Amino acid sequence: MTITQNKLPQVRKVVTAIPGPKSTEALKRRTEATSGGLGMAIPVVIQRAHDAILEDIDGNLIIDLGSGIGVTNVGNSASRVVENVIAQVQNFTHTCFTVAPYMGYIEVCEALNRLTPGTHAKKSLLVNSGAEAVENAVKIARHYTKRPAIVVFEHSYHGRTNLTMALTAKNMPYKEGFGPFATEIYRMPMPYPYRWVGDKATITEDALEMVTHKIEKEIGAHNVAAILIEPIQGEGGFIVPPKGFLPGLSEYSSKNGIVFIADEVQTGFARTGHLFAVEEESVVPDIMITAKGIAGGLPLAAVTGRAEIMDSSHASGLGGTFGGNPIACAAALGAIATIEEEKLVERSRHIGEILGSSLRAMAAKYPVIGEVRGRGAMQAIELVVPGTTEPNGAAMASVIAHCQKNGVLVLSAGTYGNVIRFLPPVVITDELLKDALSVLEEGIAAIA
Ligand SMILES: *Cc1c(COP(=O)(O)O)cnc(C)c1O
Asked: What tens digit of pLDDT does each residue of 166-216 get?
């Protein structure tokens, strides 16, 4: 099919103040019409987006270093996604997979079973959001093991539904006033290398010892259905666990009949220089949860796991009206084809080299950067009061404001509200990325 796409030039162009007059007017309507419980990272209203450029209604071309929170890894409005969506919407929009099945759902599951780590037999379930996938992974693990307890970690983020709020670590803004929360959730210490108070040389062994000791003394390993962890913590501030920690947890899980669940919602689909972040240490989870980057911007999420675990539920025990919507599945097949055909895993490593070396050069110059961390196209800087490890939220806010004013969208993160994270579309050009990093550096230099 030939489609006409409004492609945007991949350049930054700021033609008004940000927000410009049209966005300012539109945002008044936003305030009047939409729930005050919603946040907003950048105060502009978008009318088009392509690859790594967002165009607002005042005509500003903004560099996207957020990908809608790690979603448009294949670029905004990637051509294979657009083509597949248009073709699908002309055929049918919905049947409900559990009413009358269709091939798109089956093909996405086949692709996930093929692409996720491990050579064992796998099966998948499709749902609408990351949180819904986490909920289902927990349901499945409990049903399979007939055990109640779920082990999670400090700094974790797993979503905003009742169960996933309980699984999430941070109170403000995710949980405050929204309880009571689900039970049988146990939070474990997370080895956060930058802030680890113990001996950093033995961090992995010490953290594993703390976690397994707590599991055995406070829960009983035989009561644990699942250990659930993000291979690199996203909202928590791109905390990369020390080498050996994930393999250690995975090994402990298999020895104790515990389902090891990797929440790859933010780290998946070529984000970290691998297709999935657990590949870095050859960890094979029993269940993997994916969402964000799966479908180039359409709402879709998946639970993929060992066939015997995924089959443990009785028929009709799992499902949902919209889960695996055919248009979202068509988009996912377009996104997956883009990742494979455009070699986006390699591209993600290349972005990682540019990002990492530029950020480390800035850290060497500006002591307000306490640490640079992450992998591939998922990296962050943690800002501190120079000479200390004290979180510097004011510096973060000032750098983000500078970036926005100059047409670069960056996102915050972190338990202490002092992390700037970079999640560019993996298709971003080198020139555009370097331009964005020069704007970032001006913002950092301005506070130094
Ligand atoms: C975003 C996110 C979720 C929740 O996904 P939603 O689609 O927003 O429900 C869960 N886990 C991780 C690691 C995430 O980053």
From this structure: 999 999 999 999 999 999 999 999 999 999 999 999 999 999 999 999 999
Q: Which atom of ligand 1 is nearest to the CA of 235?
A: 15
Q: What is the pLDDT of residues 228-274, one digit of tens each?
A: 999 999 999 999 999 999 999 999 999 999 999 999 999 999 999 99
In whole angstroms, give the CA distance from residue 328 to residue 89.
Answer: 10
Which of 157, 161, 163, 278 has the most ligand 1 atoms within 8 A of CB, as the residue to mutate? 157
Reported as a single tens digit per residue, the pLDDT across 46-82 is 999 999 999 999 999 999 999 999 999 999 999 999 9
Q: Which residue's structure tokens are 């939220």?
A: 393
Select from 3.40.50.620, 2.30.38.10, 3.10.270.10, 3.90.1150.10 the CATH code of 21-64+344-447: 3.90.1150.10
Q: Please state whether the peptide bond connecting residue 367 to the residue before it is cis, i.e. omega within 30 degrees of 0.
A: no
Residue 2 has pLDDT above 60, yes or no: no
Model-level pTM greater than 0.85? Answer: yes
Q: Please give the CATH number for the structural domain made up of 81-340.
A: 3.40.640.10
Q: Which contiguous run of DSSP H or E holds residue 445?
A: helix 430-447
Residue 195 CA, distance from chain mean position: 22
For residue 253, the tally of other CB atoms under 10 A from its CB is 20
264, 266, 271: residue to mutate for ligand 1 pocket, most atoms within 8 A of CB:
266
Say which residue the tokens 């957020």 belong to: 66
Ligand 1 atom nearest to 267, measured from its CA: 13
Ligand 1, CB within 6 Å, residue ranges = 129-131, 134, 157-159, 230, 234, 263, 265-266, 291-292
Read off the amino acid at residue 441. Answer: E
Q: What are the residue ranges spanned by the domains of the chain?
A: 21-64+344-447, 81-340
